[in-house]
Amino acid sequence: MAEHDYDVLVIGAGPGGYVAAIRAAQLGLRTACAESRETLGGTCLNVGCIPSKALLHASEMYEEAAHGALAKFGIDFQGVTLDLDRMHAEKAKAVKELTGGIEFLFKKNKVEWLKGRASFQDKNTVSVGDRTVTAKNIVIATGSSVTPLPGVEIDQKVVVDSTGALALPKVPEHLVVIGGGVIGLELGSVWRRLGAKVTVVEYLDQILPGFDGEVRKEANKIFKKQGFELRLSTKVTGVTVQGDKASVQVEPAQGGEGETLQADAVLVAIGRRPNIDGLNLEAAGVELTKRGQVGIDHDFRTNVPGIWAIGDVAPGLMLAHKAEDEGIAVAENIAGQTGIVNHDVIPSVVYTHPEVAGVGLTEEVAREKGEIKVGKFPFMANSRAKTNRDTDGLVKVIADAKSDRVLGVWMIGSLAGTMIAQAAQAMEFGATSEDIAYTCHAHPTHSEALKEAAMAVTGKPIHI
Ligand code: FAD
Ligand code: NAI
To answer: Which cysteines are joined by disulfide bonds (predicted)?
Structure first.
């Protein structure tokens, strides 16, 4: 008889947890995954990446059709109407298919789904709903949830978080978004395209913290042109709801005279925090970082042998692909292999139009670390972008001044989210800017802008 019920128990079936469970099972380990939601896939598949991208895609098509963006190509629409219920239904279908797909993969790989909330009893024992199970290894992959804003109550009707903003039953006349980060701009884009006036209130002096400064500035310019009202260096001091309206009190971040914005909906999107409530980590002796994440080493081990942590609940970028890669690596480490994630090369993408993407160091950080060279190329000079009449944005390559090794790539452009994969791969292989510049890129493609930006690092692009 085995000493424990399972070799591996994963807590949480988001992109981190479900991938860890599948890989562990593939490696021959007896694996279970505890998940309290009705469906698998975590935040990403249920109320994050997938439904947001479904609405971004659909709203982009609506805007193109409804606001005459296609007229210049000779494509005219008459009487375009919006059926928001159908748009939501199609989004729900995508979510259902994908979450159902994970259930299928669990069955195929013989991962047992333990339905219910997990709570540690001791370092090898966990209660899940009304069951108690033991495991030799336990992976904490409980993800994150919305950071609340003190004094602002989320009722999911007038004042919503991202989950509520993915399901608004009608287009608000005026949506006030608190937080000019990824969620604010993506979901703000959805509702602006569908007809809302959108005001983004951002505490810092620029949107999209963590992105390259020049790209942030360029994004700001483009979003303003699209009709976003961006209130930078501004803080929200309170929100009062009366019936189906809200009053949002704002004032300059540094203090000063305040004003009140009237809104039909308020989206709170000021970041996310790790899910540790109810896990009873004390019973296992697992320690947290100062920021409330589960502390881990390079191999994803917590301070307690046999307990591991990955994804949003652990330090690092809160991104699905980071969680997935950590899921594979932790399972391989548990199986005695060498699972590694290179946290220096994790791409970030904002799925607005144009998309904003980056990988590696920003110009600001790279400059602090040493001497660098920077090459840029605007989509205005890229033949495919010009042909498509879609020339907003640029590509920027940052390389070490001496070795020419690429340290970071940042871009804003309609296909930036897809193009950034090439940059990440080049960096993972230790490429120099010259390596990218001398790689043959198909013509006419947006990717040629990356090649030319790399050529510009040493001052020799062809098309500008
Ligand atoms: P999660 O996906 O949060 O999954 C954790 C799971 O654990 C949850 O299902 C939860 O129910 C379960 N759980 C928690 N506690 C317990 C417990 N005690 N017992 C049992 N189960 C428990 N990232 C991207 O890379 N690209 C995107 O386009 C993108 N879009 C996003 C859009 C929105 C609106 C949001 C909110 C997030 C988005 N993200 C995106 C971020 C992405 O969703 C997260 O980084 C990712 O889901 C983290 O994966 P995870 O496995 O760590 O945790
Ligand atoms: P974020 O960290 O991206 O942005 C939050 C913004 O709110 C910041 O700009 C911050 O300065 C601002 N802010 C904080 N407190 C404020 C206050 N009191 N008043 C006004 N502004 C304030 O967080 P966001 O947008 O909530 O997203 C959470 C996480 O979800 C992201 O960090 C990202 O990792 C993930 N995500 C990823 C997506 C993607 O990859 N495309 C899409 C959506 C979410």
So the answer is: 44-49
Does this model's pTM top 0.95? My answer is yes
Q: Which residues pair with 176 in a beta bridge?
A: 199, 266
Which of 33, 115, 142, 352 most suits a substitution to test ligand 1, by most atoms within 8 Å of the C-beta? 142
Could you read off the pLDDT of 379-414 as tens digits, one per residue? 999 999 999 999 999 999 999 999 999 999 999 999
- What are the strands of the beta sheet with 348-350, ordered from one edge? 348-350, 355-360, 406-413, 394-400, 372-378
**3-class secondary structure, 85:** helix
Residue from 162, 270, 322, 353 to probe ligand 2 pocket by mutation (most atoms less than 8 Å from CB): 270
Asked if residue 49 has its Cβ within 6 Å of ligand 1, the reply is yes
Ligand nearest to the CA of 268: 2
pLDDT in tens, 77-106: 999 999 999 999 999 999 999 999 999 999
Nearest CA to 59 out of 165, 145, 164 is that of 165
Q: Catalogue all structural domains in the chain, each as residue range(s) with its CATH number.
A: 6-146+273-334 (3.50.50.60), 159-270 (3.50.50.60), 348-457 (3.30.390.30)
Note the ipTM here.
0.99
